[in-house]
């Protein structure tokens, strides 16, 4: 069976600076695939490339077996791909309800919108309570919930989640990841999850990739990665020296 999304030999640059170097990965339908990596590894660049915000200089991206690299972001939303960016990027001076309506800007089916809004309120009841509140006055955790809920309003088949735990307390991180797991299990929502919180990501993911300096240096089932000595040392345990980590990763071959 073909994956929902497949990425082959992707290269993306900022001017002369190469940010992604031959990245390849597969995302089976109904799965959660996580991409782990330190700051500057290229995780956000990967998400921005997959969502159409950046154009790759080489390689291709296929979604439902059709090439989509080079398509504009609004077209990709209509195809069923939604990006929840790092930093949430909600509309702070709009109300919660207005933010949710903005998430549905590509849709015209009013009955479907009402059903989607009811679903969003089921998963995020606090947003129903805050519907008339300006989004910028929400707590960090509530803003992250709003960012995910806004993405759900487009009724995506694939959600790109970039650092959903960023800046949140451990209790809120647990709550956000519990909702991520429920959306995957109950709604069948496929996700690509970029995270620095490797433990939280691997606990919900089916498969993981490790990105270092723009390259995939390791991949495998999430359970196997969780048991890897390298993953435990550099992502699950005490912070390690980043230069030493990079040297060791360069010597690794990806698990296939």
Residue share in helices?
25-40%
This entry's quaternary arrangement is single chain
Largest sheet: 6 strands, mixed
Strand content: 15-25%
Cross-sheet strand order for the largest sheet: 6-7-8-3-9-10
Class by SSE composition: alpha/beta
What global shape is seen? globular
Series of secondary-structure elements, N-terminal to C-terminal? EEEHEEHEHHHHEHEHEEHHH
Distance between the termini: 17 Å
Number of strands: 10
Low-pLDDT stretches are 238-256
> Count of helical segments?
11
Radius of gyration: 18 Å
Overall pLDDT metric: 89
Descriptive terms for the model:
256 residues; alpha/beta; four-stranded antiparallel β-sheet; 11 helices; 40% helix; globular; disordered C terminus
Describe the structure.
This protein is α/β, with parallel strands linked by helices. It is built from eleven helices and ten strands. The protein has helices at residues 43-50, 73-79, 96-103, 110-123, 125-129, 140-152, 170-187, 198-204, 222-226, 229-236, 242-250; strands at residues 5-14, 17-27, 32-36, 58-63, 66-67, 81-84, 158-162, 190-195, 207-212, 215-221. The strands form two sheets. It has a six-stranded mixed beta sheet with strand order 6-7-8-3-9-10, with helices on both faces. Strands 2-1-4-5 form a four-stranded antiparallel beta sheet, covered by helices on one side. The longest helix is centred in the C-terminal third of the chain and has 18 residues, at 170-187. The two termini are 17 Å apart.
